[in-house]
């Protein structure tokens, strides 16, 4: 089903603090273009988090505790947050939501080119984080058992069929929430191309289209 975002009418947007979680080998700098774009759209509270280490040498479950501690320290318990996870950061963020209590803190959850079903490229490295990102890994299987938890919040998966880092590209899809497919040609371009940036804006601005697929 295709939905024209221009036809979506929402009540005034509640702009929660936005926590951004990057991918493997990245730093918070990967979000510079996205933050600049969202700032133009009216967002003002950005909280990018540097995961350490960022190369997969530590398990994604351990990295997820960094997200949990960051949110606990920075925001009062009654403050909802929105969460944006790019690539590996999408799986790290999912673990936080599904296993570390993030379901009670997160209002909108957006993943961009996340290997939800794993990526064959994760066989290129032999460390714990990459092993967890392989198709059918125990980590992936564990999160898949109760993936329907994500239907309790405003979840959106944004992906491109041309992604050569997420193999197959359809691994970014999940059977719950909202899905936006964009014609962006590269993995890194998902955080710089204006089409995918518009999709991110749409996901953060709209929370009433759960279980809807959109193509831009």
TrEMBL record:
Q: Name one Pfam family in it.
A: Palm_thioest
Q: What is this protein called?
A: Alpha/beta fold hydrolase
Q: List UniProt keywords, sorted A-Z.
A: Hydrolase
- KW Hydrolase (keyword) present: yes
> What InterPro entries does this protein map onto?
AB_hydrolase_fold (IPR029058)
Q: Output the Gene Ontology terms for molecular function.
A: hydrolase activity
Give the highest taxon in the source lineage: Bacteria
